[in-house]
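Tokens in:
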């Protein structure tokens, strides 16, 4: 009897110890102390199903799905909570196949399991598979499962299907109606949302707030304000929704006025107001508000630290981080980002190394920082060490190598990607264009289409640039057609690329038509058209466009004057060119750079005014570049000034010692002057230096 009593007492004590450990494990996990939670879990002599479920859920919340799965697979016993937690983890992180396999293997599914699987498929856009799960659900289907399907239809724009299923439900509740309304407002269908809202027999605060959020999301803050005035009993979410709208639109005065009128402020409202100031870099007001906050959470601290870091106040940001009572990876990452923007790589790395549990954003920030600072080897080492890479990680490395001209490495990383998005394809296509591999860029557009990835304005802009450089008119016209069909024709970036493509193909009238049909021309549009006329020898028309630009109150920039001076040079408009060069400095206070001087040297050189061109080069305030000496050398050949040609050539050789064409040009000039010894000397020099064109990448693709 005594032994049995002792055994019972020992079992109760052990159970009590497990219970207390489980409580501590849950507390650590919820406070973000994942490493401490894992140490406690590993040290526990006895664990029960609750222990395993708590650790599994904590790992899943922090995106460590593989570790969560290892815990799940090692469980001696699993209950419905275990299965549902693992399915939810896979679903939340886009692992649809893993979620499906778990669901199929689950021995006793409950209503929550079925709802999870429907939500998993709808989130992935697999609406037919989601509907199949709903239809296969045995017995009376739960309302939550119906609502998940309705929400999936609505959020994916299939509103008729959502409403049809709503009508078919045996007992739709207010959540069902709000699910349709949420889909309409989140997709910007505000006209239809207003009609549906008016049809609702019953409405709650959620319904009103969804409509309010819809107007805010659509950027119609006047309508949002009017609608807010109609809400009979606005709750704090109603106030915060409108407050957030004002802050995001930069209407900080309206935001502060609304904030001061709020009958009650929760920590979210304080954080929204704080973020509004930080977004506009009003750091004095932000810091004052931060000090006035009655309560601060991790978001409050992270927001102010991030704002200070972005404003370059790194010491102040560091001081606040040291005072922060929370262990926030986001705040540390914000300071890291500030250091990296200032190229203080060692300071950033010190913070990175001190973070016990790093999230994906933290890893990506450090990798991106290395790339930004041109430290690609260090970026690659970190990339290889990263446990859970996302598409941002891969895309960062691809773009980094592409921008550095290392296209073979960029392509190698691209090919290893399991899941590519539009940014991945744009990174590799733009890399080819930047490195002069235009055919490869167009080839990869075709590969992108086969991969069923949707092209965006950036894709089309890059491909049109490739067409322009290849003078591939017919291909450019095909992209023009695709732009119209895709709806990106009204995007200024794509439109500007189309102007350049037509202009470089010699179709200046078509370039002008695209320009005229654009919804809104920006400075780049005007520059592209001026450059188009210039490169096609239409100097007078380029000047006319410049005058038109001034009449439309568009202020020219440095690029504009490069185009207009080039136009004058090609058309032999000497006086106009000199006038524009003076206009640039005196009227628009723009400081000439090397490209402007190169145009002026070319302009004067073509007119035979070589001495003036040479004096301009000698007296200019910037260091002469190869373009200027090249223009002068070409003019010397044209006007047979062999002495000045030799001087310009020597300067070119110093700047471009391996460029064959410079030596060939001086050799030709010498031969034309009858100086055969000098000509032969140049040709021997070419052979001795072993100069040749660098090999392309095409053969290795």
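Residues out:
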């Amino acid at each position: 009897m005594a032994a049995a009593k002792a055994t019972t007492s020992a079992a109760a004590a052990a159970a009590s110890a497990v219970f207390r450990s489980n409580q501590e494990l849950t507390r650590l996990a919820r406070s973000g102390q994942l490493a401490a939670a894992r140490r406690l879990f590993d040290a526990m002599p006895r664990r029960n199903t609750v222990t395993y479920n708590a650790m599994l859920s904590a790992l899943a919340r922090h995106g460590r799905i593989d570790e969560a799965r290892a815990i799940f697979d090692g469980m001696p016993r699993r209950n419905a909570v275990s299965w549902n937690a693992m399915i939810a983890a896979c679903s939340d992180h886009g692992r649809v196949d893993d979620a499906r396999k778990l669901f199929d293997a689950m021995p006793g599914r409950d209503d929550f399991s079925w709802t999870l699987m429907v939500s998993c498929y709808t989130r992935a856009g697999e609406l037919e598979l989601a509907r199949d799960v709903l239809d296969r659900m045995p017995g009376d289907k739960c309302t939550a499962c119906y609502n998940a399907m309705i929400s999936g239809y609505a959020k994916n724009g299939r509103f008729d299907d959502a409403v049809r299923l709503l009508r078919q439900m045996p007992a739709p509740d207010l959540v069902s109606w709000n699910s349709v309304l949420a889909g309409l407002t989140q997709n910007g269908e505000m006209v239809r949302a207003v009609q549906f809202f008016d049809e609702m027999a019953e409405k709650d605060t959620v319904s009103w707030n969804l409509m309010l959020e819809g107007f805010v999301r659509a950027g119609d803050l006047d309508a949002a304000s009017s609608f807010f005035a109609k809400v009979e009993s606005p709750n704090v979410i109603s106030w915060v929704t409108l407050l957030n709208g004002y802050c995001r639109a930069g209407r900080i005065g309206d935001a502060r006025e609304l904030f001061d009128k709020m009958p009650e402020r929760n920590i979210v409202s304080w954080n929204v107001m704080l973020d509004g100031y930080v977004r506009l870099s009003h750091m004095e007001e932000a810091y004052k508000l931060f000090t006035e906050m009655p309560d601060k959470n991790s978001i409050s601290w992270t927001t102010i630290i991030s704002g200070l870091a972005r404003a370059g106040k790194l010491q102040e940001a560091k001081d606040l981080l040291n005072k922060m009572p929370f262990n926030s990876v986001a705040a540390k990452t914000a300071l890291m980002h500030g250091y990296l923007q200032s190229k203080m790589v060692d300071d950033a790395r010190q913070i990175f190394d001190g973070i016990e549990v790093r999230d994906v954003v933290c890893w990506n920030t450090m990798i991106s920082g290395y790339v930004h600072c041109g430290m690609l080897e260090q970026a690659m080492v970190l990339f290889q060490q990263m446990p859970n890479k996302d598409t941002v990680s891969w895309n960062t490395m691809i773009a980094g190598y592409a921008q550095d001209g290392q296209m073979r490495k960029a392509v190698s990383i691209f090919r290893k990607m399991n899941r590519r998005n539009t940014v991945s394809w744009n990174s590799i296509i733009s890399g080819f264009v930047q490195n002069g591999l235009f055919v490869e860029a167009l080839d990869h557009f075709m590969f992108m289409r086969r991969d069923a990835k949707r092209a965006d304005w950036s894709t089309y802009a890059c491909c049109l640039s490739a067409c322009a450089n290849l003078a591939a008119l017919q291909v450019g016209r095909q992209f023009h057609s695709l732009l119209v069909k895709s709806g990106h024709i009204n995007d200024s970036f794509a439109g500007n690329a189309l102007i350049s493509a037509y202009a470089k193909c010699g179709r200046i009238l078509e370039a002008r038509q695209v320009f005229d049909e654009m919804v809104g021309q920006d400075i780049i549009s005007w520059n592209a058209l001026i450059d188009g006329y210039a490169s096609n020898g239409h100097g007078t028309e380029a000047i006319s466009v410049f005058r038109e630009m001034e009449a439309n109150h568009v202020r020219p920039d440095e690029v504009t004057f490069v185009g207009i001076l080039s136009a004058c040079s090609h058309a032999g408009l000497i006086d106009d060119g000199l006038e524009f060069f003076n206009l640039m400095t005196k009227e628009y206070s723009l400081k000439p750079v090397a490209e402007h001087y190169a145009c002026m040297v070319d302009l004067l050189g073509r007119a035979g005014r070589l001495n003036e061109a040479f004096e301009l080069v000698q007296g200019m305030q910037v260091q002469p570049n190869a373009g200027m000496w090249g223009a002068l050398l070409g003019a010397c050949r044209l006007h047979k000034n062999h002495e000045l040609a030799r001087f310009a050539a020597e300067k070119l050789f110093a700047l471009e010692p391996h460029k064959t064409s410079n030596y060939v040009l001086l050799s030709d000039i010498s031969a034309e002057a009858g100086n055969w010894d000098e000509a032969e000397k140049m040709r021997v020099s070419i052979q001795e230096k072993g100069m040749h064109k660098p090999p392309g990448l095409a053969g290795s693709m």
